[in-house]
Design brief:
The complex is a heterodimer.
Chain A lengths: L1 H20 L1 H20 L5 H33 L1 H7 L4 H31 L5 H27 L4 H28 L8 H26 L2
Helix pairs in contact in A: 1-5, 2-3, 2-5, 3-5, 3-6, 3-7, 5-6, 5-8, 6-7, 6-8, 7-8
Chain B lengths: L1 E10 L2 E11 L4 E5 L6 H8 L7 E6 L2 E3 L3 H5 L2 E4 L11 H11 L5 H12 L14 H13 L5 E5 L7 H16 L3 E5 L3 H7 L2 E6 L2 E7 L6 H29 L1
Parallel strand pairs in B: 3-8, 3-9, 6-7, 7-8
Antiparallel strand pairs in B: 1-2, 1-4, 4-5, 9-10
The chains are: A mainly alpha, B alpha/beta.
Chain lengths: 223, 249
């Protein structure tokens, strides 16, 4: 119970600060919109092309802008020394991770809530919202968890803006490939069995990396 | 109460603390003096559970750390070089947030009590970024006192404090002494810090080179003289040790 109350307190603080500054959300939104607009002008995709290449473009936009937001997650804490404040308190380090990862997940989902409709409009893609939104949320779950852990590592380095993508992309490869393949399947209205393997990989990735990030977070933030 | 035995801390090849043994009883207010890089902040961070010792034993309120760090944290109040506050939140929101991390009951009443203690109770709704450095330091003090800690660790607490805030801080030390809490703080400002202290430690190159009671100096000028003398003596001894080592080599 105490654990959950602490998670709630940290999460509430994260949301309150973001509500006042809109620092993370605005940066992510502007970046994802720019990526989609640039792709729209750069590639003239039509018909089958968009159903094959579109998911890749969508996930590139989500991934790049998501990393931009994740970078601020711990950098903000380190700048002000407030991470030390949390570490001084008798708070389970898992509670800090859970709250931070949940906040990042919420910010990225909000960004996706704008990015996905824009993708549909710009690229004129007919989509089945129900399964696709679920798959994107599933991908975002693993992305937020591993991003939160790596953001904590990167924030303690000198070149943190560079370090986060360098650390994150190699780890993200299985998630991104699975997410793109599933999105392709959903956009092309293929039967679920055609991309079930990728779906299983994505679920396994989420379970493994959420658990691993939760368990190792303590060793990342403590000396 | 603070106890360390043979405490050592190494960062890469640099030894920040060397064989530090120390006992500070409950109710004592102790000033930690020394030049930059002497190991004062490292010692305070280890005691605050923010850093792990490389070797040696540490106990705060008879709780061994780092093993019992989680339990010890509830009894430690720490103010470091940074205020550890969130600029975007108000004083009240910051204190409420930290109070919830410490799972405190009757939080609003406690916030009001510590706010009055440090003189910020009239500005609870002000956001941190609108406050002067001195006021922010007062909020940092309130944050450290919120959970009624038995050990107070302050790293250069006079930084940015004006005369009034300085009086508030001295008052806090006196109250802590009266309540039987242990206070250890580092400071370069002898004039202000020695008023509050009843014991002084001088550190140089990771070692405690002086440990004396209030009766051993009369005023700040007297302590400054003692401080300079001890540092010169320690430097001379270090030179001699260096010379002997070279000859042996």
């Amino acid at each position: 119970m105490r654990f959950l109350r602490q998670v709630y307190a940290i999460l509430g603080k994260e949301l309150a600060i973001e509500w006042r500054t809109r620092e993370v959300l605005s940066a992510m939104l502007v970046f994802s919109l720019l990526v989609l607009v640039i792709f729209n002008f750069a590639f003239e995709l039509q018909g089958v092309d968009i159903l094959v290449l579109g998911p890749g473009l969508l996930w590139v936009a989500i991934c790049f802008s998501g990393i931009l937001g994740l970078g601020r997650s711990f950098a903000r804490e380190r700048d002000k020394g407030s991470l030390e404040g949390m570490l001084l308190a008798p708070v389970d380090r898992g509670a800090i991770f859970l709250a931070k990862a949940t906040a990042n997940f919420i910010f990225i989902v909000l960004m996706e809530a704008v990015t996905l409709p824009l993708f549909v409009i710009l690229f004129n893609v007919p989509i089945m919202w129900f399964p696709l939104v679920g798959y994107i949320i599933l991908g975002t779950l693993g992305f937020s968890a591993i991003g939160t852990l790596l953001s904590a590592i990167a924030a303690s380095t000198r070149m943190r803006e560079v370090m986060l993508p360098v650390l994150m992309f190699p780890v993200l490869v299985p998630l991104l490939v699975a997410a793109v393949k599933i999105t392709q399947g959903a956009l092309q209205n293929l039967p679920f069995s055609d991309y079930q393997g990728w779906f299983t990989l994505l679920v396994a990735y989420d379970i493994i990396f959420v658990t691993a990030a939760f368990l190792t977070f303590e060793y990342v933030v403590e000396e | 109460m603070i106890e360390t035995l043979g405490l050592e801390k190494t960062y890469g090849v640099r030894q920040a603390l060397k064989n530090t043994t120390l006992t500070i009883e409950a109710g004592q207010v102790v000033v930690l003096a020394g030049p930059n890089g002497a190991g004062k902040s490292t010692l305070l961070k280890i005691l605050a559970t923010l850093a792990r010792p490389t070797r040696g034993r540490v106990a705060v309120n008879r709780i061994e750390i780092p093993d019992g760090a989680m339990k010890a944290r509830a009894t430690i109040g720490y103010v470091g070089h940074q205020t550890l506050l969130y600029d975007e939140l108000s004083i009240y929101e910051n204190l409420r947030y930290y109070g919830r991390l410490y799972a405190l009951g009757g939080l609003d009443a406690r916030i009001l009590e510590v706010s009055r203690q440090v003189g910020i109770d009239k500005r609870l709704d002000d956001t941190i970024r609108t406050l002067s450095r001195g006021y922010q330091q007062r909020v940092a003090l309130a944050r450290a006192l919120l959970h009624n800690p038995r050990v107070l660790l302050f790293d250069e607490p006079w930084t940015g404090l004006d005369q009034n805030s300085s009086i508030v801080l001295t008052g806090l030390f006196e109250k802590a002494r009266g309540d039987g809490a242990t206070v250890l703080f580092s400071s370069h400002e002898f004039e202000r810090s020695l008023v509050a202290a009843d014991r002084a430690l001088i550190m140089r190159n990771g070692r405690i080179i002086y440990d004396g009671a209030r009766s051993e100096w009369t005023d700040a000028a007297g302590f400054a003289q003692l401080y300079a003398g001890r540092l010169a003596q320690a430097a001379e001894q270090a030179d001699k040790r260096g010379g002997t080592a070279k000859k042996k080599a």
